Amino acid sequence: MSKTNRFFIKLARRVPRLSALNVRFLASMIRRSPARYIIAMKYKVHDVDKAILACPEIKGLLAKDFTEALRNGSQGMVDDMDANHGHPWGFPLVEIKVEVHCWFGELDLGVPPAVGQYLCDTIPNCEAEVVPDSGYLGA
């Protein structure tokens, strides 16, 4: 896991309100310039993801995805970060009734495969797929 992510996980556990403010700030930065955020991503991803980020078509798709993800505000991003940083999801994962498929990259520095494996171990009827030689973007 990247040092940046370790820092923000500790921040979220110790000072959740400050973590939420940070995520809202990050979301506002992404809304203003998704392209700048994509450049900043290179500093916290595996080399396999850096190669993907170098592709102009991928940069364009990511910029569109980020814009759409934040179209209605940043609360979804705040909730996502909370869940990724160990806070309760707001409902017990064991109550999920639908079939779930999780894909994660073996080399992901942002969301390690152990996180996905935990989800699949906790959610009934969940299938895990670890993508070999892949990072965050390749899974």
Describe the structure.
The chain has 139 residues and is mainly α. It folds into two domains: 88 residues, no CATH class; 49 residues, no CATH class. Helices cover 56% and strands 9% of the residues. A two-stranded parallel sheet has the order 1-2. β1, α7 and β2 form a beta-alpha-beta unit. α2 crosses α6. The chain is globular. The two termini are 16 Å apart. The model has no long low-confidence stretch (mean pLDDT 88).
Furnish the topology, listing elements before pairings.
Blueprint: H1 3-14, H2 16-32, H3 34-41, H4 47-53, H5 56-69, H6 75-84, E1 100-105, H7 113-122, E2 126-131
Parallel strand pairs: 1-2
Helix pairs in contact: 1-2, 2-3, 2-6
Physical arrangement of strands within the biggest beta sheet: 1-2
Q: Kindly report how far apart the N and C termini lie.
A: 16 Å
> How many domains?
2
* Share of helix, binned: 55-70%
Q: Main sheet? A: 2 strands, parallel
Structure class: mainly alpha
Shape field: globular
Number of strands: 2
Task: Give the rounded overall mean pLDDT.
Answer: 88
User: Unreliable stretches, pLDDT < 50, 5 or more residues?
Assistant: none
DSSP helical segment count: 7
Order of helices and strands: HHHHHHEHE
Radius of gyration: 15 Å
Strand content: 5-15%
